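sorry for the late reply, my laptop died twice this morning and i had to redo everyting from scratch. anyway the thing you sent over, i finally got around to it. pasting the sequence first so we're on the same page, its 117 residues, then the predicted structure underneath. double check i copied it right bc i was rushing
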Amino acid sequence: MSWTGRMALLGGAAELVVAALALLSAGTLGLAAALAGGGIAAAAQVAAVALLRPGMKAPQAEFVRRWASGIAIRGVAALVVVVLVFATKAVLPPLWTVLGFFAVLLTLLYAETRFLE
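ok and here's the structure:
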């Protein structure tokens, strides 16, 4: 299985757990919020790893540039979540948006070295 498939499987599993908890706790709006946050995190993480993978064996300057770009992608994703929370706070539960984001992002960050091989 390719690295993107493995990453999608792991991210999807983390998102499924948070989404199920959100559904039980906050209903369908909590589910939607968790899926939105998790989707943003998964997209950011896939983009960051896709950017870094070609630079794994590159000279240090190239590697650091790609690594820093991946950090920037994750930072922009966090800002997107903040904007989403403020824009939809009357509709979507902010807690589940943020939990969905961090659950998926941290799960994929911890497993990132497996996807870089």
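Helices lie at 3-52, 60-88, 94-110, 112-115.
thats about all i looked at so far, will dig more tmrw
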